[in-house]
Batch of 2 targets.
Target 1
Amino acid sequence: MGLVFILACMLSCNSKRAGEEENASADSASIQSERPAHWSYSEEGGPAGWAELSPVYALCGSGKSQSPVNILSDAVKGSAEWRIDYKKTPLEIAHHEHVEELINNGHTIQVTPHEGSTITYSGKVYHLKQFHFHTPSEHTINGKHYPMEIHLVHEADDKSLAVIGVLVQEGKHNSNFDQLIKYLPNAAGERKTHDSVSIDVSMNIPEILSAWHYIGSLTTPPCSENVQWLVLTNPVAMSMEQLSAFSSRLKNNNRPVQALNGRMLTIETLSSKN
Ligand SMILES: [Zn+2]
């Protein structure tokens, strides 16, 4: 399959030290008072009712540029210039139960890389803040879900967001993900830092990629809009066992597709700095 990626997740594991650091997070008390209303993917508190849970979530119901969307693969070719520059980082991984801040996506397993990985769009730099996983995929292609989708969330200095979505299909075992799967948290609320495990976020990214581009939103409350979305046109493959390592932990954490409302999708070329 050649591709990909991704992101990474090719983790090269440096020698594991005995007593590797594992920090259980205990920071919830300090932010308790500002914690937004609880939401979920189940019937109660689920996507259809997110807007009613809190005024802060209003856009989840009234927004006209929401994500995810169904992508029709015959989009027109665009001319924007995107450039990816991903670096190595120690592995910091958490299984979130609650939203703790805007781009900390609740109800997912999230990896938080160190500073230094970026994408650039027309001279504007977006810093990679975290990546996380949805099972099944949130975006659909010609109406079809993939078993998983990885979201790489980037933020610019002016707080605007750009997200790269990577679709994952079932295929051969993908050793790029072995180390990540080995360290997947087992319980919601678990947070671990593995300083001795190094993730090369750039590993295996081809020099030239293409992606569907559109303007959308966060796919979780508060569903904020004006998010630059890039969904890579080439999926990554993983074995069924590898996919189940994620889906058994995440269950179904996908928001249904949202109306396009006339938004245009284009196919853009991304270059990477490898
Ligand atoms: Zn996501």
Target 2
Amino acid sequence: MENKTANVLIVDDRPENHLAMEGILKHSGCALIKANSGEEALRCLLDNEFAVILMDVQMPGMDGFETAALIREREKSKHIPIIFITAVEKARKQVEQGYTLGAVDYILKPFEPSFLKTKVGVFVELHQMRMRDIEARKKITRMAGELARSNRELEEFAYIASHDLQEPLRKIKNFTELLARQYQGRLDEKADEFMYYITDGARRMQRLISGLLSYSRVTTRKTPLSRVDLNTLVSQVVNSIQIKLDETGASVTTDGLPTLKADEIQIGQVFQNLILNAVKFRGQDPPEIHISAQKKDLPGKKEWLLGVKDNGIGIEPENSSRIFEIFQRLHLKEEYPGDGMGLAICKKIVNRHGGEIRAESRGNGNGMTVYFTLPDNGDRESNGDPNKTD
Ligand SMILES: Nc1ncnc2c1ncn2[C@@H]1O[C@H](COP(=O)(O)OP(=O)(O)OP(=O)(O)O)[C@@H](O)[C@H]1O
Ligand SMILES: [Mg+2]
């Protein structure tokens, strides 16, 4: 980071005092700017940043106190530390007056040179620390802006790419399927095999692309947040997949769930993905799925911790973050079909709502719980009455 030299302003009407100060401070690593009067000091302050001002109290015309009062009135200069320099015999009264005008320190004449050097050194160091801090903050703000822009661009790209790829891919898939139907068994065995691979590959690619498209739609097709009763939402989700649940003898139970401000469609998608995973990755017993809700009052934030717990095959704990990445799967496609997009989409949706998501499992065969948080945005809570209307 750039380390700019700090300026020190010396305000004194006497050239011999300027010379003496210069002699003392010449190796202090700061730039000395001299003003012969209060008026000149105010002019210097218009154009420059200063670490500290060394102000002689007694000057003809505007004295040190009047100058200090004007410095304190200006927004740009009101925070600059001022050290008054005054003769010992006048000190007591002046010190009192000076402090009411915002002096940070005093040096009484005659003074020990090292004393002045040390005091100025402290203010120069403080100023440089502040400048470094300001620079660092600016850099962080700039970088956050760049990151947000590049994320937006990436998302737009992912959306456009996946959207536009669908059409040519559909053509490839349709025509190879047609080819396969019309020429199956009429060419040689190898040709049949090749056609199978082409159609299978095209179908897979179509599924992957539509997964990517759903992923990018989490942010490109979002709807504004509205009050959502999670009890009603979960019942709707359960109804929509009832056939699948019945096929496997699955049961879904819930705690009393809250009413929150959320994107109803997206949070419904989260519950649906998690419940369907619990059913898909079931063990020997019929799936038992429980949806829990716990209110968390943490310092500075209030949130709900929601959990979807199952009694299925579970995962090894070391894989618990990997499964939230795009296309990441732990199980064989032949045994458990899927593309590895469901949890990545859940994560994006939860993050978009300002929450976090994680999985907990005590290893294979021990079931799994996916926990996610949603901010408690101060809305009225539901006590579990699914018939409540807004
Ligand atoms: N409830 C669960 N129990 C055990 N393993 C799970 C569970 N949920 C997810 N997993 C593991 O995490 C992987 C990623 O899950 P995800 O939902 O993203 O993909 P998927 O279900 O395989 O495919 P898709 O959701 O795209 O149809 C799964 O392939 C599986 O290995
Ligand atoms: Mg899934």
